[in-house]
Design a protein that fits this description.
254 residues, mainly alpha
C-alpha cells in the first residue's frame, strides 16, 4: 500500500515539475533575447505552452522568474566546474581553466551575463541575495587556487588572494564589456592565454626578488611606474616635436 501511494505521489508531481521546467526554459530564452524590461510573461507563457495566468502559480512575478533563471544558471556552472576543475592539474593549468571558463560563460550567454551586471549587481540589496552567494561560490575557486599556490611557494604571498580574484574577474569582465554591448567579439583561447600569463608571471615567486632588499611588491610597482613613464614619453614625442617645428616656423617667418 505504501509503495502504491509513493508511486501515485511521484506521478502526480511529475507534470508540475515538467511544467515548471518548461516555464524556466522559456523564460531563459525570452530574457536572453529581450532583456528584463522588454520580456513579457505572455511571450514566456506562449513559448512554454501554458496559459499566462498559470505562470503565477509557480512564480510570484517576472522578477522572481528572472531570479530563478539566474540561480539555475550559476548552479549549473558551479556543478560543471566542480567536476571538470578536479581533473586539471598544475597551478597554471587550473588558473587558465578558471579564466577560460568564465570567458566562455560570458561568450555563450551574453544576455544572461548582462542581466546579472545590470539588474542585480547595482541593487543595494544584492549582497543579501542567493545570486550573490552563488557568485561568491563561483569565484571562490580562483581564490582557492591562488591560496594553494602561495602555500606551496609557487606564488608570492605578499598579495591578498581575494585581490587576485578581483583582478581576474574584473579583467575578464572589463575586457568583454564591449562584446556584451553587442560591439564585436573576442577570441576565448587567446584572451585566456593572455590573462593567465599576466596573472601567473605577476605572482610567480622569484629567487632574485626573494633575496632583494626591497619588498617584491615595491619592485613590481617600480617596474609598473617605469612602464607607465615610458608610455607617457612615447605619447608625448609627436606633440613635442610638432611644437618645436611650429616655433621654428614662427622664427623663420619673423
Amino acid at each position: 500500500m505504501a509503495r502504491t501511494g509513493t508511486t501515485r505521489k511521484r506521478a502526480s508531481r511529475l507534470p508540475r515539475e515538467r511544467r515548471e521546467a518548461d516555464i524556466l526554459e522559456a523564460a531563459r530564452t525570452v530574457f536572453r533575447l529581450r532583456g528584463y524590461e522588454a520580456a513579457s510573461i505572455s511571450e514566456i507563457a506562449e513559448r512554454a505552452g501554458v496559459v499566462e495566468g498559470s505562470i503565477y502559480r509557480y512564480f510570484q512575478n517576472k522578477r522572481a522568474l528572472l531570479v530563478r533563471v539566474i540561480e539555475d544558471w550559476y548552479s549549473g556552472m558551479i556543478e560543471e566546474d566542480s567536476h571538470l576543475l578536479a581533473s586539471v592539474t598544475g597551478i597554471r593549468n587550473r588558473l587558465r581553466y578558471i579564466i577560460w571558463h568564465h570567458l566562455k560563460a560570458l561568450h555563450d550567454e551574453p544576455g544572461l551575463s548582462s542581466l546579472v551586471f545590470l539588474e542585480f549587481r547595482p541593487d543595494p540589496q544584492y549582497r543579501k541575495t542567493t545570486i550573490y552567494t552563488l557568485n561568491r561560490r563561483y569565484t571562490a575557486r580562483a581564490t582557492a587556487v591562488v591560496r594553494d599556490a602561495m602555500q606551496s611557494g609557487e606564488f608570492r604571498s605578499d598579495v591578498p588572494p581575494g585581490l587576485v580574484r578581483d583582478l581576474i574577474y574584473g579583467c575578464v569582465e572589463h575586457h568583454t564589456w564591449a562584446f556584451l554591448r553587442g560591439e564585436g567579439g573576442f577570441d576565448i583561447e587567446a584572451v585566456a592565454d593572455s590573462i593567465t600569463d599576466l596573472v601567473y608571471r605577476g605572482l610567480a615567486a622569484s629567487p632574485a626578488q626573494t633575496s632583494a632588499q626591497e619588498a617584491p611588491l615595491d619592485v613590481a610597482l617600480q617596474r609598473l611606474d617605469a612602464a607607465v613613464s615610458k608610455l607617457n614619453t612615447l605619447s608625448l614625442v609627436a606633440p613635442a616635436q610638432e611644437s618645436v617645428e611650429h616655433v621654428e616656423g614662427r622664427r623663420r617667418r619673423r
